[in-house]
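dumping these here so i dont lose them again. two proteins, back to back, each one seq then structure tokens. dont judge the mess
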Amino acid sequence: MTKSRIQEMAKPYMEYDMIQSHTSLPDFPEARTRLLLAFLNAKGIQEENRNLFALVTSLVQVGLDTHDQVPESNELKEQNEARSRQLKVLAGAYFSSRFYNLLSQAGQIDIIKQLSLSICEVNRMKMNFYLQMKQLKLTAEEYLQQSVNIKTQLFLSFNKMISDGYLKVWPEILTGFTKCEVLVKEMFRADSLHQFRNSWGFWHLLQFGTKEERSYLSSDKTDGGLIRSMLQKYNIAGKLSQMLDEQLEHLKEIIRKLEPSNLTEELFRLQETYYRFVGMPQLLEER
């Protein structure tokens, strides 16, 4: 997916030598940012303001996602690992704080309030989500739905700025594209043993695996060969690819029902960027 102007605007706040040298950052929420820009544009929000709103929302999202990457354990023996953990904590807090500074300078106090309330709601949702994970009380569908809900919450802060003609379809389209984003990420996780724990594939296997397989997954064992065989046995990557294909077709039908406009053109362009991932499982198998 090509970088948007908002991602270019975010570079000065994100590209610090210390961060790039010692830790990694989560992916920029490109699709959700483009969606927000497109719908704000359809409302007639002036360019300066819609760029500002998209920028600060993406920075908050990156901040929250950065904190998600902080390891649960603080017992890091290697100096590089300890430094990476500390930088993730600091970077996440820095990105999250920039929205207040940028919006207050622009006099957008109402947006500060909206985003602050959404941040609180995201953190509440995450706490419940992590508790369910820890207790192994999630189905694969619940995992997917809650992941999508958490990722859309910040962007739903702007419901009041969406044109009346698109107000009903905005949450559905945002949720649909975010689901595509999550499915693509889960396809990559299905090809990485390091990221398997608590992935969609993990919850699917815990739900539909044999008694022995579920018992193994509930333990802390990490037999890479066994996990790989289970992923192939239950065709996890293929199932994710099929779900992505179905979601894209669903989005296509929603967009087709809208009156042709610059907004629908942008939605179709954004949708096309995901179709290349539908055949990804086969490409991974051929490597």
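---- next one ----
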Amino acid sequence: MSKPHQIRTALDELLDGLVEGDPFPPERELATRFGVARETLRQALHELLVEGRIERRGRGTVVAKSKLVQPLSLSSYTEGALRMGRKPGRILVTWDDVPATAELADALDVTEGVAVMRLERILLADGQRIGLESTHLPSHRFGTFRKTFDPTTSLYAAIRATGVTFGSAVERIETVLAAPREAGLLESTTAMPMLRLHRRSLDTDGTPIEVVHALYRGDRVAFEARLT
């Protein structure tokens, strides 16, 4: 067994004896305990950070919360968080109207250049920043949200309250690195792997509801699909 693999196995066993929020031994102490070079140890610790098993807190490191598992289904982020016993939350970043590009106009079935509503929010779970979501909505369907919708609450619940029923969606997920602005909003770094989600949702009549581009921290969120 190689030295890096031995160290990783030892760290995994150490984590098995700890619970969420417990302090994780500092790098110097671990290097001495296992008799390895600091560089070898740093690589193993970086892997644990990326996997979301430990997290930096101030000058120290603690055992991280388990990842928020989001179902790949026509349910909202709120529903996924509540299902895992986590408290959902949102921070509004921008809420404006933007001219529809050719691609967006085609996806929302509107005229190119017409104004569409864009809602950008930071997604929280138990106060932790886990995602950055940008949703485009056709203004002719949901323009009244300007007066009625609280952006710190569930958008899907508000859409359903208008009588619209979600019928289907096409969703794509890919691994990316965050741009500096995105990393800053998510309190992360540009080196941390992210999960980029693209979704186009339709109602039961086949009329477009939304186009969503969301970025999730790979160390805090995982996606799950149920296959039958």
